[in-house]
Amino acid sequence: MTAAWARLDRELAAWGAAGRRATLWLRDDDACRDSTELQRLLDIACSCDAPVALAVIPAGLEPSLVAAVARCDRASVLQHGYAHRNHAPAGARSCELGGHRSVAATLAELVVGFDGLEGAFGERFLPVLVPPWNRIDSDVTARLPGAGFRALSTFGPRAAPQAAAGLAQCNTHVDLIAWRRDRAFIGAEAAIDRIVGHLQARRGGGVDPAEPTGLLTHHLALDDAAWSFLADFVIRTRAHDAVAWLDAGAIFGARGPRGAAISARSA
Predict the structure, then answer these.
(1) 79-111 pLDDT, tens per residue?
(2) In this structure, what are the phi and psi dihedrals at residue 178, rounded to the nearest 5 degrees?
(3) All domains of the chain, ordered by start, with CATH?
(4) Among 15, 104, 170, 246, which residue's Cβ finds the most Cβ atoms within 10 Å?
């Protein structure tokens, strides 16, 4: 691990030497209710003064999550689909927001979820859609601005700053869980290698240099090793002069009054 942290230090030093700051952000998916695991995540965010964006499943929202978010001023809320329900046929990759049913039906659910989250969280809710399984049909994407959404967040380097006209995009790039390997932690060295890889690609222009490097977590799936790495990584980078941890509101510019979202739907 000493060698892995050294690789990260060298990469951050390169950013500093170039007069640049490596921007980072943290998105945590599948939030519905308060739990020991959620508190562990929010404790890291609050104690380290590092923002976290919670992707909340509207249909599963419980009042305990609203209370937990209210207690942590470093937490913001994004919309994680509607019910995190798979509508794809047997044998196809899981997808809630795909082309397996009408776009109108999909958007109608998303609007219900949007209104519920905005009503529950107020200004803590940002009109940003995080598709379950990071998959969404292009026809749905194109119509998101008309439903009040201002941004989209999936996984992998973005092709462009906008996913569609009027719809910003900022993704995550390093998932701490190996979902096809028994939902195991990928390991600290692998996580650092992937983070460094994205930072190097940004610095060299191989991917969009303006897209912050996004760390993706699922608080209910992290084991002790993953939690230990996450805390260490946040503490180390939060104190580094060449790093800036970004709040989701700053990334997406998505904060705004409820009336703005309603107006967008009728535009």
Answers:
(1) 999 999 999 999 899 999 999 999 999 999 999
(2) -95, 95
(3) 2-11+22-255 (3.20.20.370)
(4) 170
